[in-house]
């Protein structure tokens, strides 16, 4: 009963905290675009939130495995509430300095690299294995639903309440998430936790453990490489979507909302299907089909970036993303012990997120100098290559009966273990 109660609380905390993230996720790039009229600066604003995953993300996974994960998530939510309040104060200024927008956005983004590995590790501790595909699908579906509603809600809340009051509402959402996490039961001890100050020292061996565990399994190793390529393809477009729709093609912000909303709706539909698919097919099957569908979605707008074409293409990309994300998370939870989940997740994300900033800048250059068609063509061809490598390689066979993780030697008790 306590596990199901914690599952409910974790779901509630995730959706409330992620809602808080979305209020300003699209509002800030729009603000920078209005202040600068620059596609590159707008893309940089969008990509900035992913930079901390690369800069500090490797170490946050070690921290998430060493300290009490529940307390760490509560602390991240409370600090996010404070930072969002600071953004509200900036909005009270007559002319918002772009530099300060970047600084506060970066500080807020630093909370996610700490929160996410802790959340994934805590989920693996508190949710039974047979429930994890369902919870993974729900998390992906909720995140995608917020992807659909977030841009509209973010801009709408700021427009109706004003930036300062919207910031107060946003801060309250983070505080509520912290309360939900605090109400969960303590997880069973799988590793000796330490104080945060102690956890910040001597992290190199644990960090190397995260790399070793991630690259010990061939599927995790090649999957990380392929997902990095996929991130490059997707975020070359995602980071410049505001510019492509509102500036390059002269469409309205309503069209932008329709396109992003279609992506979220597709992802919700995909997430709803995934648990049923995983009862019949392997994780590798989902990854292969997801990669292929995403390639089709990125190539379709080469014909036209009009919302009539872009919206259904982005709906397909949402379905594909759910297949990829839930398939990947479920496989990773099967082969990595919960004790080491935080650092493996952090290393995984740090590597794959290295592609986002250069992709955003390259995409901005392509969109500005050559137009939208070359941007979609480059991204689509790269994603098609990632799909082909997935379909013919080990990643496409992940979790299938013909290949199960096997152990040929027995490690010492003090060594990290990749479970089968």
List the helices and strands and how they pair.
Blueprint: H1 2-25, H2 27-36, H3 39-48, H4 51-55, H5 57-66, H6 69-91, H7 98-109, H8 111-126, H9 132-161, H10 163-182, H11 196-199, H12 204-216, H13 218-238, H14 241-248, H15 253-278, H16 283-299, H17 307-335, H18 341-353, H19 356-369, H20 372-392
Helix pairs in contact: 1-9, 1-10, 2-3, 3-19, 5-8, 5-18, 6-7, 6-8, 6-10, 8-18, 9-10, 9-15, 9-17, 12-18, 13-18, 13-19, 13-20, 15-17, 16-17, 16-20, 19-20
Oligomeric state of the chains present here: single chain
The general outline is globular
What's the count of strands?
0
Pick out the low-confidence regions.
187-192, 402-420
String of helices and strands = HHHHHHHHHHHHHHHHHHHH
